[in-house]
Amino acid sequence: MKNNNDITNGNCWIAYFDVLGFSRMIKEDSGNLVGFVEVDYKEIIRALITTGKYDPDFVNILWFSDTFLLFTNDGSKGSLSKIDIAARHFFVNVIKKRIPLRGALSFGEFYADKQNNIFVGEGLIDAYKYAEYQNWLGFIMTPSAILEASKLGLCPPDRSKYIEYDVPCKCQKSTEKLYVFKPPEYPNLRESVEQLYKESQNTCANDDNVMLKYKNTLEFL
Predict the structure, then answer these.
(1) What per-residue confidence (pLDDT) applies to 29?
(2) Residues 89, 186, 46, 82: what is their CA dihedral angle, to the nearest 10 degrees?
(3) Where in the chain does DSSP place strands (E)?
(4) CA 10, CA 123: separation in Å to the nearest integer?
């Protein structure tokens, strides 16, 4: 792994998140984009940075539009523990703000040049693919992350926080069994998802796919 503060190059841990219904959020705030940025978007960024679990010595963060990315400087056991904690708390804090989110933790080759805004690699593609194909609000470990974490004796990183579950997905296979973050210590999380579901019944009642995402999530929680 090469890291000179500006460039990361090699195998590392990557957590990719995207906000569901982001285009609809912007349309609803049409003509008041500044208000959307100041209220909703900055709330997400605050959740990313101010969780108290984010360690900038181990975990890098960046965001663009509806995408939020965390990645480590290397593929070590210590880095896995750091990004796992930061990613889980980010996921919970955003959902509690009633902003729908899904994400995936992967492991793989990644090149990141912050100064020139270059971010490429198989690890990023893997995280993106598994985050995007989930048909719910959830945070999972990809097969690449599961394999590498197993080699380190940390699969899952925290056994009290993850369970194996048939993850609902938007592909030919209806589910795939993966390790999924199960947040039992956050009882208000279900209430937030229920509120999002109720709001969607008013705004997206005719979109069966949106409704299914929330139903899948509530069934899991």
Answers:
(1) 59
(2) -10
(3) 2-3, 7-19, 59-64, 67-72, 101-113, 118-120, 139-141, 162-168, 175-181
(4) 10
Q: Two tokens at 27?
A: 């349309």
The residue count for the chain: 221
Residues 6+ apart with CB under 8 A from 192: 95, 96, 97, 98
Domain positions in the chain: 2-220
Amino acid letter, 217: T
pLDDT digits 0-9 by tens, 134-160: 999 999 999 999 999 999 988 877 778
What does the alpha-carbon distance between residue 189 and residue 62 come to, in Å, rounded to a whole number? 25
Contact 110, 8 (CB under 8 A): yes
pLDDT at 3 > cutoff 60? no
DSSP assignment of 92-121: HHHHHTT--EEEEEEEEEEEEETTTTEEE-
State the CATH architecture for 2-220: 2-Layer Sandwich (3.30)
